[in-house]
Amino acid sequence: VDEDEFSSDPPAQAIASVLIVIMSLVVIASVLCRGYENFYLMVSKEQEVDGLVPLIPQKSTTNNDSEHQTEPSKLMKVLYACDMDTSMKEFMKTTTRPTNFLNGMRVLSICWVVLGHTLAYPKNPGMDDYPETIHIMTKFRMLIVSSGLLSVDTFFFMSAFLACFLILKIVKPDPVFSFINTSKKVTMLWVDRYVRLTPLYALCLFTAWYLLQYMVDGPLAYTFHRGGSVAASCEDNWWKNLLYIQNFGDESNVVCFGHSWYLANDFQFLMLGSVLMFGFMYAPIVSVLVTVVLLITSWILVAVLISDNYTQYSTGANYFRPWIRFGPYGIGLLTGYVLAKHKSFVRKYVQSTRIRWTGYVMSGIFMFGCMVFQWAMQKQTAPSESHWGKGMAQFQQVTYHIFWGLGLAILTLTWSCGHGGVIVRFLSHPVFEPLGKVTFGVYLIHPMVLAVLRVSLPALAHYSDAWLLATAVAAINGSYLGGWLAFIFIERPIGALWDLASGRKARR
C-alpha cells in the first residue's frame, strides 16, 4: 500500500487526524502545566497571588494553613489530567499491598499471551513451513507456547478477584439495603468501566482497520488491506465491539479485532459479577450459592457442547462464549469474597505448614495438568484420543478452566496471607507495578506489532526456535512501548478526566 492510496483514503486520514489531535492536546496541556508551575514559583517568591496555587498542596507552615489552601481551578485540573509529567508520575508510582504479587502475575501473563500469539498472528500470511511448524508444536519443549490459552483464564481470575476484593473493602454498604441506591452503584460501575476502556479500545480497533495497512511494507503488505486478518469482519461488525457483544453471533469463528473477544467476556462478566459482588455485602450466602450454581451450569454446558466433538471446545466459536469462560471468573469472585470477609479464617489455616504445602501440591497438580492437557490437544498431527482416550479428553475439556482457576485461588489465598517466600518477593518486585499498569494497552496493540514484524519481512517467515524467541521478545518490547504511549496520551488522561466529570476521587 503506497502513500497515494492514503491520500485518497478519507477514513484512514480521519483516524490519523484524531490521533494527531489527541497527542497535540496532551502536549499543549503539558506545556501549559509547566508554564503554570514556573510562573507560580516565580511570583510566589515575591507576592501572594490569589487563585494561583500548585496542583499538589505545599507543606503547611502553621496549624491553620490548611484553612487557607485554595483549590486549583477546574481548568487547571483538566490540564493536569492530561499532563504527561503527571501521567508519568502515576505510571512510576508504586504501592505496598499484600496482593502486589498480582502485578508480577499480570506482567508474566501478558508476555505469555504475546508469546502464544507469535505463531497465531497474523493468520495470513502464514509460515512457509506450516506443516512442519504444526509438528514442532507437538514437542514437549513447546509446552509454554501450546498452553498459552490458559493465560487468558489468569486474567479472568484476576479481574474478578481484584474487583470483588476492592469493592468489598472500599465500598461502604448502606445500613439498610436499598434497591435504588445499590442499582445506582452497580450501574455506575458499568459506566465507569465502559468510559475508561472504550476510547483506547476504539482507537486501536480503527487504527488496525484503517491505518495498519500503511504501517507495513514489502511483498506481503497486500495481505493487510483494511487490516487483513487482524481486523477481519470489521466492515460489518465493528459496532458489536463497541457494545461488547462481539462474542455472540454465528459459528464462523471470525471476530472483528479478533483478540477483543476477551474484552467482551470480561465486560459481560463485570455486569453479572457486580450484582454478585454487592450481593456479598447484603446476602453473602445467597450470592455464594448463586455463584456456585453458575459454575456448575458452566460445567454442564461445556459437557453438552463437547459430547459430539470434544475438540471443538478449544477451537470453534464456543471458545468465545461467556458461559464457557465463566469458570475462572466465578472462582475469582469467590476468592475475593473469602479474602475480603474471612481473611482471619484463611490466615489461621495457612499458618499450618502441612496445610500450606498440601495446597501448593494441589495447585501444582491442577495447573501443570492443565498445561500438559493443552499441549496434548495441540497435537494436530494425531487425534487427541490416541494420547488420552476420548473419555479423559472430554473430562479435561469440562474441567480445565475450573482446575486452572482453583490452582490460582489456592495460591492467591495463601500468598495474600504473607506466605510464598522468594516467589512472592519476585512477583511483588516494584518493577512489575508500572509494567502492569499498561497491560490493557499491550493487549490491544500486540497483534498490530506482530503484524508489522511478520508482514514486513521480504518473504514468509520460516520457523525456528530462535525465530520464535526473537520475534516474541521484539513483539513484547514493541507492545510495551505502544502500551506506555497509549497510557500517557490516552488511557490515563481519559481516566483522570472521567474522575473529574463524574465527581469521583482520582484513583490512588
Order of helices and strands: HHHHHHHHHHHHHHHHHHHHHH
* Major β-sheet profile: none
User: What's the overall average pLDDT, rounded?
Assistant: 85
User: What general form does the structure show?
Assistant: globular
Broad structural category? mainly alpha
How large, in whole angstroms, is the Cα Rg?
25 Å
Number of strands: 0
Number of helices: 22
Helical proportion, percent range? 55-70%
Name the poorly predicted regions. Answer: 55-63, 380-386
Beta-strand percentage?
under 5%
Give the termini separation. Answer: 45 Å
Key phrases:
508 residues, mainly alpha, 0% strand, globular
Describe this structure in words.
The chain is mostly helical and 508 residues long. It has 22 helices and no strands. Helix 2 crosses helix 3.
